Amino acid sequence: MGGCGSAVIANTSFIDNTAGNGGGIHLNHSNSTTIKNCFLDNEDNLAVDVSINAALNYSSVSPPGINIAGGPNLGGNLWITDPQENISETGTDADFNGICDESFAIAGFGTDAFPLVYGGSVQINSSVAGATVYVDGTDTGLLTNRSFYLPVGEHTVSVTLAGHPNPGSQTVPISNSETNDPITFSFSVPIVHPAIWNVSHIAGVGNYTNVSEIPEIGGGGDTIRIWGGRTGTPMKAGSTSLPRM
Fold first, then answer.
1. Which residues pair with 160 in a beta bridge?
2. What pTM value is reported for the model?
């Protein structure tokens, strides 16, 4: 595109574009161009000649709304494949809002303040509502029984809920192009204190292989039983003298 000042390119996918002039989008003498909510998946995503003052996102904020990648917020654009312009694949998303934590600047052209995360949506449920969700060991600050937008790839998801044993973790593969299967965590009956905890080298229902795996030790009266060492002497919770495994 050439000689088109203040042009707007929005809500469009540019995939495997091999135009002779280069770039999924090629701009020539096109100042103050706005590019927003575009899906850029090319070996060379953007080729720019004598074009400045571009706007590469909706506004100074990232409003709610389904973006072109399927994420929950509108923002800038999706940048993948091009090794120089692939922040949507490499950027972090600490608050899990589908927007990269870092902006993306194209020298001499403009800055995408809200580049989109290349991810997919997955429903994360629990048999008891209100469990806190962890993704790859990070507390999301969000609760179960809702949809989560996560970067493409495999993630380890776990949940916790006070008063309930930890139901373990699940590995979740995330795709952008296919529907991701929902996952559900089932909580057993609430923990009642004082409780008896069994620890040995054999994993199994009601048995832990490490004291640190015990989900919730009460303020007093719980008993930890260590098995498989020289003795199987029950130990009171909080003891620092444990038989060697």
1. 132
2. 0.75
